[in-house]
Specification:
This protein has 5 helices and 15 strands. With about 270 residues, the protein is α+β, with helices and mostly antiparallel strands. A hairpin with a 6-residue loop joins strand 11 and strand 12. Helix 1 packs parallel to helix 5 and helix 3 packs antiparallel against helix 4. Bound molecules: magnesium ion (MG) (2 copies).
């Protein structure tokens, strides 16, 4: 059952989302060769608690850490460890925060130093597909419209869309209805309702869409060992239009990137 949020609840959710956005912005300045994902995890946990929130993932379904850290061929749900990041790696960082009873949940895939052009293109196209998906999150549309948009955009580049893991509604629970697959058919699935909040999160593989899971019970990686990218935003349906609650602006500030990709989805 989809649980629509009041405008007051959406503002509380924006607060939770922005704590995650700022955490990712802080991490953007720290992601470099030599740092371990466990060190980044500790920084994130302190930062989130200092902002009056709780790490959203720690303990959720018994996940052990604050961040899901998924380098290179790992898709999502990687567990932070003591292995230093290396020049040329990519690292998908997924972060959650809980404040005022509401979750924020979003993700960004960072380049560690210089990365090869093919991987750089994977990151670019995956991030673009996130905004293509957000643009389809509109009154009258259905989950299949968002999934179709993301799938159509990324498969045109020969990429694989992960099937087993999907976006989701978000609110007082990290995972609420509806499921938001990154593939689908136009006009199919659950219809969007005013006030709902979702996590749209394409997980896109450079090669096959097929995945496998490590014996740790968490880590998902590509079946062919090629890289995978993950970008995620929290979006509310307000006046029938997609409105971003999260932002990558803090990341871009840290990295010196200018971008207007979020502009169409920011409330006046
Ligand atoms: Mg997430
Ligand atoms: Mg999510």
């Amino acid at each position: 059952m989809i649980i629509p949020k009041s405008s007051e609840e959406i503002e509380l959710m924006r607060e939770s989302a922005l704590i995650v956005s700022k955490t990712l912005g802080m991490l953007a300045g720290e992601v470099k060769p030599g740092i371990t994902t466990l060190a980044l995890d500790a920084l994130a946990e302190t930062f989130i608690r200092d902002h009056g929130a709780l790490p959203g993932f720690k303990g959720l379904y018994d996940f052990p850490n604050t961040l899901c850290m998924s380098p290179n061929a790992q898709v999502v749900h990687g567990i932070p460890n003591n292995k230093p990041l290396e020049e040329g790696d990519i690292i998908s960082i997924d972060c959650g925060a809980l404040k005022n009873g509401f979750y924020g949940d979003h993700a960004y895939t960072f380049a560690v130093g210089e990365i090869d052009p093919a991987t750089e293109k994977l990151l670019k196209i995956t991030k673009e597909s996130l905004y293509v998906g957000i643009d389809a999150f509109r009154k009258g549309n259905r989950t299949g419209d968002v999934g179709y948009a993301i799938q159509h955009y990324t498969e045109a580049h020969g990429y694989g869309v992960v099937r087993e893991l999907v976006g989701h509604g978000v609110g007082r629970k990290m995972h609420e209805d509806p499921e938001m697959p990154n593939y689908g058919r136009r006009g199919q699935g659950k219809q969007f309702v005013e006030g709902m909040v979702v996590a749209i999160e394409p997980m896109i593989n450079q090669g096959t869409h097929r995945i496998k899971q490590l014996k740790d019970g968490w880590t998902i990686l590509t079946a062919d060992g090629l890289p995978s990218a993950h970008f995620e935003h929290n979006v509310a349906l307000v006046n029938g239009q997609p409105q971003l609650l999260s932002t990558f602006k803090y990341i871009y500030d840290a990295l010196g990137i200018s971008s207007d990709e979020e502009k169409p989805f920011i409330s006046a």
